[in-house]
Design brief:
The complex is a heterodimer. By secondary structure, chain A is mainly alpha-helical. Helices cover 67% and strands 2% of the residues of chain A. In chain A, helix 4 packs across helix 14, helix 5 runs parallel beside helix 7 and helix 10 crosses helix 12. The longest helix of chain B is centred in the N-terminal third of the chain and has 31 residues. The relative contact order of chain B is 0.20. The chains are: A mainly alpha, B mainly alpha.
Amino acid sequence: MTTMLRSTPSKHARKATGLRGRPLLRTSYDQDLTLANTPAKRRSVIALVIASFVVPFLLTDDLLQVLTLGMISAVGAIGLNLVTGYAGQVSLGHAFFIGVGAYTGAVLGGDPDGALLGYGLPMWIWLPAAGVVAAIAGLLVGPLAVRLRGLYLAIVTLGLVFLGDHIFREARNITGGPGVGRRGAELELFGIDFASMEPISGLSRGQAQFFLGLVFLIVFAILGRNIARSGVGPAFGAVRDRDVAAAVIGVDLTKYKVMAFAMSSFFAGVTGALYYAVIGVFEPGAFSLLLSIQYLAMVLIGGVATISGSIMGALFIALLPRISQFIAHYIPGELLTVFQLEAILYGLLIMGFLIFEPRGLFGIWTRIRNYWKGWPFSY
Amino acid sequence: MTTFLQSLLNGLAQGSIYALLALGYVMIYKATHVISFAQPALMVCGGLFAYHATSEWGLGFWPALIVAIILGALLGMLVERLALRPMVGKPVFTLAIITIGVDIVLRIFANRYMGPDPRSVPYPGGSERYEFWGLSISHQRLGLIAVTTVTVIALALFFRYAKTGLAMRATALSQETALAQGIRVGAIFALAWAIAGGLAAIAGTFVAATGAGLEQNTWIIALKALPAIIIGGLDSIPGAVIGGLAVGVVESVTAVYQPDVAPWLGNNFALVAPYALMFVVLLVRPYGLFGTKEVERV
């Protein structure tokens, strides 16, 4: 694990790493780009991963499912962060790509004997396929992003959600139609049925699904981090900060904008397929503008253009219903119901973070870290 | 032919609502370069102000409309002052997202007030209809078209001749230069939001007066003004009016002909037809029909 986190883009730079006692000294650019570039980061990532493998044995199944769904949507948030945070292309259309992924997964992995279209393929086919089909949808939208900028693009992607919503409602032999819905794909990997009520080799259903979600998140978080630290990441950053300037210094705008949409849609697609497979039954109304805003909230609350921020944001949004239930005890019931409180919290949190902490939870974490880094001389 | 003309007429009436809302979006965009996603909430709140004025205070339709416009304008100014003024100078994307937050919060309060029943504002003409050349139009829709026409002309005159109108045009052109000329740019922002709030309130009142009234999901209507401004061009006032009317007409004509001509598009395709139109227009003209092309410097 330690060696994996230490891996550098090119091998020859490895030798220069780690002068004893001076862990923060960088002697090459490659060292700066390593996956976890400080010893503290290496240690804490390992500790965090170990801790998250212990968590399922401490919590109840219903809380575990909330966390599982949070971890799965974190992958979607990373996807949105790639296109909106890193590449600066505002997308309100994330719900559409998630929907495409969810229905691709459901059709390929769905029950072949059911009333709706389903081919009963195994998970290792439907999960990547959902990503690929969503990425193709992203490729089709990409060219629009090349022609349009800023808020024009935001509105066009918003239009995409409405058109997608219409298509999902009308394609009844695939989606079941509004109010009816359909089952997601079968959650069966390497002979293990993650949806079964029976204990799976000693693990309860919630624990098994938690591990599935955790592994899924780790794989895609590393993938996302690698995209961000490879040559693509800085190119995205250049496009975001000033696209004309980026074009002048030789960044191919068309290529990178289309690439950003395709990658982000791939993440959205796999998220959609797995999320609704875990949920079970879902209906076309789920992929509305509200879902896009939820993902946008994850990115903004977590931290724009950070992978760890996307994960924090997604877990936070997943836990928000719990949090608002908790707060609701202190608010008289006739004033606001729990659902209204939750929706208001969305709005207020988005506004609050943008006004007071634009770097999100990640920014708060950075400030805490820097405080303790210099402790006791933290002024 | 009559069917076509009738759907055209209905489309123009519906399009007037979109045009009013689109004008609000353009007002805010021109002054602050932000697209306000709070417009749906302002529309619903405006309609509810009118509802409250008629049902609780016992006012007639027209006084209630005036009350709604004033309260809507105040609400717009309040939103600008509390949520957007602290963020002046931040990226427009951030501001646009903040308006989404405003929209969510305001709509929760509106829904809270509305409850599950539709709320409608009684229109003085009732369900009377005018008939001419084989076409028919309801009293409300005629009133809507008339009010929209008057509003658009008044706004055009305001921008052309009034001193404040000139100040607003100057601010839209360049905020710094406007400041240097002694224009209070902050006040212009507030005014732009007030006009947008007032326009949204007119739209909301007429939405509440025609058809089913205001319901929990009526706010979706206001989002259809977004394709309208994109079609017209984000910063063009005539574009907003023409875009709004175009969206209304396309929607109503699609509703009449699509089930026969292209049934494979599914039920209720008319509701999303404006978005389809937007895609087509943007592929041909990325800055809309009347929008100014952005000139970029490195």
